[in-house]
Amino acid sequence: MRGVLRRCVQNLRGGRGANFYFRNFSTARAVLVAISNRVRVLSVSLVRAVILRIDLLWVPRERRTSGLWRSQVVRCAVSWQVWDFGERRPALVRLPDRGTISDAIEVCDAEIAIIDSEIANCDIARPIHLPEKCPRFEIRSAVLPEVGPPIAPEVGVGCGRDRAMLRAVTVGQRFSRPHDLVQYLADDLMATVASGDILFIGDADATSTTSSLLRNRGRASVVLESGYGKKSKSGTCSILQRPDIGSFFKFLLDSDPRSVGAVIFVGSSLPVEELAAACDSKIDAPMWFVDANRRQLSRLERPAAPEKSSWPKISIVMPSFNQASYLEAAIRSVLDQNYPFLQFIIVDGGSTDGSLDIVSRYREQFSAVIVESDEGQSDALNKGFALATGEIMNWLCSDDLLEPGSLECVASAFLRHRADLIAGGCIRIGATRDEETYRHHNSLRLGITMPLDALDILKFIRSWESANYFFQPEVFFSRRIWDLSGAMIKNHLFYAMDYDLWLRMALAGATFRHLPVMIGCSRVHPTQKTQSNRMYLHQIRQMMEEYKYLFQSLC
Questions:
Q1: Are 496 and 540 in contact (CB under 8 A)?
Q2: CA distance linking residue 275 with residue 272, whole number of Å
């Protein structure tokens, strides 16, 4: 006990926080009582319902108060299981503390006010598909012990999986002069890199000498700022950041990886996030790291590609109804992936435009075919997902497309990072694939696995509509988070059922990995459901009422 106390006090001095794990309550309480006038309890939580975790912060002498158990505020992560909100199984709602409930209610009220103003100012007509009143559910909630969802994925760039991919092999000894290092690197690049641009990432002064030397030898080189760039600004929350023009991350999102011949990182420490993002991309060029301070050159090795036998099963559900003009292209975009562990389910609501003839031609290549009337897209998706058995899941509308190689890219990222959501980019197209109108990437950070921010996603007008998050074809999700969030699409939703699903997944504690890769295509055409008239805002307003009611019920 005395040794635990000594280490506790030593670690807390100087304003440093710490967390400690105790295997029983009596030991934890004894330690807290012994230091009760010198520390503040930041949070108390159970880890796997066995070990008590206590987060502590040292309190300066002038701010100390006695009676820890009476006067100090204890913030606890709180979880609920929610029934009767339309879920197939209880849905997990996990919040950092009870105070977040009031914050969420305030967000809902603010969004409702903004939406009401938008509808009134723009005279947005109410769609006939919506119920007249916001649906009401009998919500039964059960407060769980302070324990997280089943073994959450590792979070952060420094976790074991990321460290495994960041192997650096030192080339030769430390160079005595910077000129010798630059000369060695330039000679090696000229000999081994036959074509493509050579990227230099880092401070412009540190990279200018080598890039100039290569240009003098007739090789094209591009100098980029590291990460998001010096002028990049964070978004509405800590997980959002848009890269600035001229930065490495902007290059990853916008450029063709086939144009890259080599990547050279220059700096005083290994650029972990940049390298992790490069490994997540389709860049297949050699990478080097130049330690400018130590005058040392290292070759960076990528992680080995996972064996095909270890690839996870992917389930894709395709809802179809009278989209014969685009249906075959959508089907082929999935089948042409040639993914070995694919479960492809199509659900047609009784099309009359020739779609069923197309489905019949490919019937043997589908894992399941459902042809029957339904109550709309949400109902069709629920019928399909009820048959899905994959470890990774998604749906693809019958007028959208997957980009070539997308499933392999998603599977590889899932095996490396085990994130709940694997999100890439999406291309807006017209009647044909060649008619590109817009390339979208979300604002989520690259090169790192992080939890989604449910409160920011709840800000539909103030954050979601700014394209900070997802277009539906570009994001795949794990069965783990599908089950934790209720394993269903809400049947009464005509619009934005995908937005509602991502929000419920965020509330259940979902983590994401943003890949600098184009995953899918979203088609814009006159007969599509979501139009520029913004009639969907009426549905979003109802959803805000639903979530406000949910949070009020949890109080």
A1: yes
A2: 5
H-helix or E-strand containing 475?
strand 475-478
Say how far apart CA 491 and CA 87 lie, in whole Å: 10
Of 256, 309, 300, which Cα lies nearest the Cα of 279?
A: 300
Q: Single out the residue of 411, 444, 412 nearest to residue 425, CA to CA.
A: 444
CA distance 241 to 228: 8
Burial of 191 (0-12, 13-18, 19+ CB in 10 A): exposed
**In whole angstroms, what is the distance from residue 260 CA to residue 102 CA?**
49
Q: Residue 463 and residue 457: Cα distance in Å, rounded?
A: 7
State pLDDT tens for residues 477-521. 999 999 999 999 998 899 999 999 999 999 999 999 999 999 999
Mean pLDDT, rounded, for 60-65: 42
Query: Range with the lowest mean pLDDT among 148-157, 369-378, 516-525?
Result: 148-157
Residue type, 53: R
Give the CA distances from residue 6 to residues 67, 119, 342, 446, in Å, rounded to whole numbers and listed in that order: 20, 62, 56, 40
H and E: helices and strands count for the chain:
17, 22
- In this structure, the strands spanning 401-402 and 342-348 are unpaired
**CA 554 to mean position of chain CA atoms:** 26
Dist. CA 454–CA 105, nearest whole Å: 12
User: Token match 């295509």: residue?
Assistant: 521
**448 class by beta-carbon count within 10 Å (0-12 exposed, 13-18 middle, 19+ buried):** buried
Contact 448, 272 (CB under 8 A): no
| Distance, CA of 430 to CA of 329 (rounded, Å) | 13
Q: How far apart are CA 330 and CA 324, in angstroms?
A: 10
Please give the radius of gyration of the chain, using alpha carbons only, rounded to the nearest integer: 26
Q: How far apart are CA 136 and CA 155, in angstroms?
A: 36
Sheet with 287-291: strands ordered across:
167-170, 296-301, 287-291, 260-267, 197-201, 221-224
- Helix spans in 267-417 (H): 272-280, 324-335, 355-361, 377-385, 406-417
For strands 197-201 and 260-267, give the pairing.
parallel
Domains of the chain plus CATH, in order, are 2-76 (no CATH), 160-301 (3.40.50), 310-399 (3.90.550.10)
Residues 6 or more apart whose CB falls under 8 angstroms from that of 215 comprise 221
Cα within 13 Å of Cα(428), Cβ side: 10
Structure tokens belonging to residue 237: 């929350």
Identify the CA nearest to 343 among candidates 379, 396, 306, 305.
Answer: 396
Reading the block at residue 146, the tokens are 């302070």
pTM of the model: 0.82
Q: How far apart are CA 540 and CA 379, in angstroms?
A: 19
Tell me the C-alpha distance between 518 and 474, whole Å. Answer: 7
